[in-house]
């Protein structure tokens, strides 16, 4: 997906859309707001909140997603990703896109514009830090900020509300999972058992909180197919998807 001052371009992405009296929204991935069904219902709730307080509304949206919004009244366009940055989006003077390569093509960048330091960092560490990409003109959109494109095409970043790591959580882990289960009741939940404590604890927690019959478990290809993981899945989740 690509959003510019001129409008929205879907590209090759599989996206969903919602139209309200004041906003047009497009999104990729899973988005939900606590207590609201994931998908269109949560996006409609977000749009209602965004009309009053966009930074707070963006901070309340959870999941793994990329969302764009056109404000019909002001003409402004906005884009942001989930608070954990699980979905990547990129921005430059040309706009905001969920595809790094589409943005490179739009900016007409080539090998001459590649940043050598970024290449070295990527080869040495396996990633690029602080939102950098291989081109100085293109940056990764920070998870804690919202990109705004004015009608004149000027791009700026707006911080979301309450996204600092120093801010205490609003709910316990159990309440967080209960809210997620309530919102994602109609979604397929997939948990890959990698062999660590995190995925096993999450599988047990989802079952304990009443979502067991909607969970699909798999053992990741890089994890040894240990008997204890198979037993865990058989005991705690009725349906097991083996992928090893």
Give a written overview of the molecule:
With about 240 residues, this protein is α+β, with helices and mostly antiparallel strands. The protein has two domains: about 1-160, Glutamine Phosphoribosylpyrophosphate, subunit 1, domain 1, CATH 3.60.20.10; about 190-235. It contains seven helices and 13 strands. It has helices at about 40-50, 55-60, 100-105, 115-125, 175-185, 195-210, 225-235; strands at about 1-5, 5-10, 15-20, 25-30, 60-70, 75-80, 90, 95, 140, 145-150, 155-160, 190-195, 215-220. It has a six-stranded antiparallel beta sheet. A five-stranded antiparallel beta sheet has the order 2-1-8-7-9, with helices on one face. Helix 6 runs parallel beside helix 7.
Backbone structural class: alpha+beta
Helix content: 25-40%
What top-tier CATH class of the largest domain fits best?
A: Alpha Beta
The CATH homologous superfamily of the largest domain is named Aminohydrolase, N-terminal nucleophile (Ntn) domain
Total strands: the figure is 13
Topology (SSEs and partners):
Layout: E1 2-4, E2 7-9, E3 16-19, E4 23-32, H1 40-50, H2 54-60, E5 62-71, E6 77-81, E7 90-92, E8 95-97, H3 100-107, H4 116-125, E9 139-140, E10 145-149, E11 155-159, H5 173-183, E12 189-193, H6 197-211, E13 215-219, H7 227-236
Parallel strand pairs: 12-13
Antiparallel strand pairs: 1-2, 1-8, 3-4, 4-5, 5-6, 6-10, 7-8, 7-9, 10-11
Helix pairs in contact: 1-2, 5-6, 6-7
């Amino acid at each position: 997906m690509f959003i510019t001052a001129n409008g929205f371009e879907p590209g090759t992405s599989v996206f969903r859309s919602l139209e309200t009296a004041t906003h047009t929204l497009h999104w990729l991935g899973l988005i939900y707001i606590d207590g609201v069904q994931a998908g269109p219902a949560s996006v409609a709730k977000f749009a209602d909140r965004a009309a009053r307080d966009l930074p707070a509304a963006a901070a309340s949206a959870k999941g793994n997603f990329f969302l764009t919004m056109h404000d019909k009244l002001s003409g402004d366009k906005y884009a942001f990703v989930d608070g954990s940055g699980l979905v990547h989006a990129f921005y430059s003077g040309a706009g905001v896109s969920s595809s790094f390569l589409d943005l490179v093509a739009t900016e007409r960048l080539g090998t001459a514009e590649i940043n050598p330091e970024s290449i070295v960092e990527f080869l040495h560490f396996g990633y690029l830090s602080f939102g950098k990409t291989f081109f100085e003109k293109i940056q990764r959109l920070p998870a804690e900020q919202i990109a705004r494109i004015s009608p004149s095409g000027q791009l700026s970043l707006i911080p979301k509300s309450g996204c600092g790591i120093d801010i205490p959580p609003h709910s316990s882990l159990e309440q967080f999972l209960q809210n997620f289960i309530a919102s994602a009741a109609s979604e397929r939940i997939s948990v890959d058992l990698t062999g660590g404590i995190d995925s096993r604890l999450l599988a047990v927690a989802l079952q304990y909180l009443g979502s067991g019959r909607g969970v699909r478990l798999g053992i990741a290809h890089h994890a040894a197919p240990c008997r204890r993981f198979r037993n865990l899945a058989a005991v705690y989740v009725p349906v097991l998807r083996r992928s090893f």
